[in-house]
Amino acid sequence: MKIPNYSVAAFAIMMLFLIVGKVNAQNEKSKNKLPNIVFIYADDLGYGDLGVYGATEIKTPNMDKLANSGIRFTNGYATSATCTPSRYGLLTGVYPWREKDAKILPGTAPLLIKTNQMTIPKMLKEKGYQTGIVGKWHLGLGEGNLDWNKEISPSPNQVGFDYSHIMAATQDRVPTVYIENGFVVGLDPKDPIEVNYDKNFEGIPTAITNPELVKMKWHHGHNNSVVNGIPRIGFMKGGKSAIWSDVDMSDHFLTKAQDYVIKHKNEPFFLYYAIQQPHVPRTPNPRFEGKSGMGPRGDVILEADWTIGEFIKTLEKEGLLENTLIVLSSDNGPVLNDGYYDDAVTKLGKHKPAGPLRGGKYSLFDAGTRVPFVVSWPGKIKPAVSDALVCQIDLLSSLASLVGSNVTTPDSENLMPVFTGKTSIGRKELVLEASSKTAFRQGDWAMIPPYKGVPVYGDVNIEVGNNKEYQLYNLKEDIGQKQNLAKSNPEKLKEMMACFEKIRGK
Ligand code: NG6
Ligand code: CA
């Protein structure tokens, strides 16, 4: 039978439409594909520790490159001047001063986040994300009286993370072991682990009873159990086969983070990659030892920078970088002597870890909470520097809006247009916390109400912000908070106090 020519042509045209339609649909799908989300969260990294934030004495090429590929915030804040409260605020979108137990936790503390509480990973999971954490946790585990030799629960896995590979608290606190999905990694059941923060176990050496074991001298605190020659906070017995290697910790977490990305490259994933640097004890891998000329604190910043570079290379190699939203930030401001003699003070030279800001870790002054804050998403965000006021607490509502979730909290603002550079108008105000005391930022102004207590936290030599008088600073004109304007501008002070009290009382 002879097929008329016009029907061949019609068939061809139809096929063409089908193919074009399919290609378009595919394009549309990949264009609208939810981005992967990664938080790279450093520990005690200061506003002035990165080249891109003004450091000249230390080189951070990989963090600088990331910052230059996205939006670098000059007014980006952690919620708190210490770790546990900041991480609580970051993950829950709730101000940590609303939670009375949000203080620096011992390694034996129960889980601070309630298992029925909303968190970023939980919200993302509801939207089809695979969620993981690698690195420092420090938000408590279990329900008290934890048996480290059984399944540890609740853990990150009960508050939204599908996968967790963590250290329980800090590098200077016991237990000095990794925990994966609720189980201590490499534990020998014949050598069970016991942990206590109140009293030692019989026959276990400490930095006081056996100073000859100590390779890193303690300055204040840090004189309990000695692990790998480093005296820690808290006492620990057993678990020998599970004990981590401090100098390999950075490589260890990097490998876990890279493995996670490779394993989940075909689904949208959220990875909270909480690196341990430059918190004490600073234990650079021998590859980085002596490389900064600034002692171990500088060396571990170089190590962290290299590690971040390697991690980003993995995203690139897997073809994921374009559609990955990366937030780089720190949990609180910098500190030099945080309990060990490690040359951080003596070898500092001209480096200014807090940049132009006043104070540091533990401080109500700006260096306590104003931290490096970068948002990169190569496929979507054009590089820029933004002066908008933003806080880590806003990531919950912002990411919710990005993925089409209506999760929010009264404290967390949807700043997605700011994080993607569509506007530079951020928050109007922000309550900041240090050691359960609070201060207030509004526009360019910072206000610290009167507080009892020492003005300088002696051991660490940081001005913490306590003063019998009200303090009021205009950060635009006086970023170093040198000129207290409380007396010369009583109207502004009154206005800020009223707003501050209204939020605090909410
Ligand atoms: C302090 C520790 C300090 C550090 C900090 C927690 C003493 C004297 N000092 O109590 O070394 O571990 O807690 O840091 O023990 S944070 O970044 O996790 O908040
Ligand atoms: Ca910290």
TrEMBL record:
Keyword Iron: no
PROSITE patterns in alphabetical order: SULFATASE_1, SULFATASE_2
UniProt KW Heme keyword: no
Keywords: Hydrolase
Sulfatase N-terminal domain location: 35-404
Gene Ontology MF terms: hydrolase activity
Domain of life: Bacteria
UniProt similarity note: Belongs to the sulfatase family.
Record protein name field: Arylsulfatase
